[in-house]
Amino acid sequence: xxxxxxxxxxxxxxxxxxxxxxxxxxxxxxxxxxxxxxxxxxxxxxxxxxxxxxxxxxxxxxxxxxxxxxxxxxxxxxxxxxxxxxxxxxxxxxxxxxxxxxxxxxxxxxxxxxxxxxxxxxxxxxxxxxxxxxxxxxxxxxxxxxxxxxxxxxxxxxxxxxxxxxxxxxxxxxxxxxxxxxxxxxxxxxxxxxxxxxxxxxxxxxxxxxxxxxxxxxxxxxxxxxxxxxxxxxxxxxxxxxxxxxxxxxxxxxxxxxxxxxxxxxxxxxxxxxxxxxxxxxxxxxxxxxxxxxxxxxxxxxxxxxxxxxxxxxxxxxxxxxxxxxxxxxxxxxxxxxxxxxxxxxxxxxxxxxxxxxxxxxxxxxxxxxxxxxxxxxxxxxxxxxxxxxxxxxxxxxxxxxxxxxxxxxxxxxxxxxxxxxxxxxxxxxxxxxxxxxxxxxxxxxxxxxxxxxxxxxxxxxxxxxxxxxxxxxxxxxxxxxxxxxxxxxxxxxxxxxxxxxxxxxxxxxxxxxxxxxxxxxxxxxxxxxxxxxxxxxxxxxxxxxxxxxxxxxxxxxxxxxxxxxxxxxxxxxxxxxxxxxxxxxxxxxxxxxxxxxxxxxxxxxxxxxxxxxxxxxxxxxxxxxxxxxxxxxxxxxxxxxxxxxxxxxxxxxxxxxxxxxxxxxxxxxxxxxxxxxxxxxxxxxxxxxxxxxxxxxxxxxxxxxxxxxxxxxxxxxxxxxxxxxxxxxxxxxxxxxxxxxxxxxxxxxxxxxxxxxxxxxxxxxxxxxxxxxxxxxxxxxxxxxxxxxxxxxxxxxxxxxxxxxxxxxxxxxxxxxxxxxxxxxxxxxxxxxxxxxxxxxxxxxxxxxxxxxxxxxxxxxxxxxxxxxxxxxxxxxxxxxxxxxxxxxxxxxxxxxxxxxxxxxxxxxxxxxxxxxxxxxxxxxxxxxxxxxxxxxxxxxxxxxxxxxxxxxxxxxxxxxxxxxxxxxxxxxxxxxxxxxxxxxxxxxxxxxxxxxxxxxxxxxxxxxxxxx
Length: 1014
Known about the structure:
The protein is α+β, with helices and mostly antiparallel strands and 1014 residues long. Helices cover 68% and strands 9% of the residues. The protein has a 6-stranded antiparallel beta sheet with strand order 2-1-4-5-8-9. It has a 6-stranded mixed beta sheet with strand order 10-14-15-3-16-17. Strands 11-12-13 form a 3-stranded antiparallel beta sheet. Strand 8 and strand 9 (127-132) form a beta hairpin. Helix 13 (424-502) packs antiparallel against helix 18 (616-669). The protein starts with a strand and ends with a helix.
């Protein structure tokens, strides 16, 4: 990886765009990055890291820390552009962090999201081609090409000497943390964690299995209640060795005892069943004797009751016999009753009909009445034509009245239509004029609406203009005050900082410890440390002054932004006010009051025009309704005229028809008022004659049938054995009464047969001769036998259930023990591996964790690579070696010692002096860079940066160190040294100087004689 070009804009201390040409700096192979403290040397390296990974190293990327320069003007974006070559690809990365910018509309600021661009140079076309603008895609692409994470890059490419000096003096745990980040040994730590997790899981599974086994043992103890084994349950905890064998042994003993108890319970049940059967037989015999004795006594009592009921039974039987003979006379009796009812009804109807006739016809026969009926019917038939004429005359009269009413209505309609049509033309003209006025008002309202809205916007803009003018004046006042406060705070901070720098030696002297190297000169001897003076300023005072300056600067910046936003808003409002045609013609700027008056006048005119225009639809509807009414009235007038002409001819025809009908009606009415009255009288007389003739004939037939029924009844009673028909009628019984008598007789006979059967039963008489039975005593003996049987049966069932339960639980315990076998083997294997990788196993003699073992191998490679350069820097005196020896009670694996060729002794790196520590840590950093590069896939690193530490070297050692760094050019590398040591500026021609100023820092590229002379 080689850097070509870096552009920094509004980043860190750089307020404007700064360009760094790494190609020019790398031409010499070794270049110097220098400048005063706080100028921004480290910010250049931060920019390289930010361009590659989107973040900067260390605490400078903490939340709340902004990358934007405080010196950058508003509107300038914070941006970093880096051009580099990785492999055979030349890339250009541009990044912008999330930052505040002024809003495009309105006042205030808005946050713009972070942006990233990645481009690749195409040598064939000589142009840059865009690859991606996705943060995630670009981050993955750069990490894959460089082959290192951000932490590895910061340790390998940006070599921080202070970190490696601490690495030399650190213990094994601290070295492990650093090496773990660089070589990414998280997978080995993950293996340790995974094995530990598997061990815990396997242990939990074994303990869960043991817990289930103990649960089964507890259940077996409960199931074995009452057995001797239940008094000695299994004791133990999950995970105890031999637990499974103890449970299985106890289960076998409990099963044996349960089977013995089951056999004993079976023998007792057999004995109880024999006793219960004998008691049951005795009870049955006693109950049978008691039942036979009771049945015989009951039969004797029932026979006595039958003897007492015999006379009543004979009387009922005689009544049933006479009823059977009377049933043969019943049909004749029914016919006689029906004939008598018909005869009575016929005589009543005849008398009622004769009462309606004239006296001369009261005794007339049926034939005479029929002759009179036929004569009246002939007279009624002659009136049919007269009735039709009378009906037609009524219809003609009604039609004539309808024609008269229609004539009067048509005359009224013609008169009304003539009056309305006479005033039509003036009315139509007035309605048409109203429609035209509404149309003109609508056009005028539309025109006024187009002028009203711009007038209102100009009025609002004028009011905003006046308000913003006052706001701008107040903002100018606040900005002037903020500038004064900022300048005063800045001068105060610079004064405090200058006073602190003057006494910085005394401040550093406070931290000196005998035997430790000085942070400035590197010497371990401190003969005359500086003393503080009365006006000495400490760091806290400087920080407070800087914080006050920072707050004042932020206040000034906010005031400038506020003023710029207010002025921009005022200009926009004023421009909107001047958009009116009057302002364009006269060139004057109207006031808010003038614009308000203009808007009110336009609003009033628009309201009036809009109200009148709103009547357009109603005016058109009114005109349309009037025109439709005109057409309807004219049509009605023409139709009425046609009806009048047709009605005259129809009235004349009706008059002729009515005269002919009057002549015919005069002939048909006779002495009656109407023909209908005459016909109605005739119809009533005919109906009376027909009814009377019918009733006379019906009465004669009923008398004949009554005489015949009396003859048949007398004959039937005689043949049935009765003296008179009345005697036969008295012997008849109803169906319900006869059924009741028969049931009483049948019940007596059934009871007599049952008593005879009961007395004839075998053994009944013998049982009556025996002593009375005692079933209660037999039932008590049987109840006691059944209770004994139930107790024996319950005991057997409990023994069977206990035996079956113990057998089932024993099978579950055997299955659980079999299932736990592989789990125990797996737990033993995993626990052995976990203890071995965690360094807690006795087999791991050096107590090295797996991750430490891998890091020890990497550290051994780093020590070998660093020794090659350390020997050159120390003139062959020192060599770094890896040690896996344990230190006290700590684990081993990451020890680092230095071998002194002058003494032949091996000692800890913490015993090196300040200068020796520097070049040892430099050699270690360069060696680590080589090893990490190989670990990352062999990506070539053509550009390296080395941070501070050269001030602790003497002149000879500095030459040797520079020779080693200069030798890196043999591999076509360029090395940048970050330092403010003045001697380096005389030794290294290619230099990148960072200069700080009030407006922000800037970079200057110097090469050759220009750099050495400067």
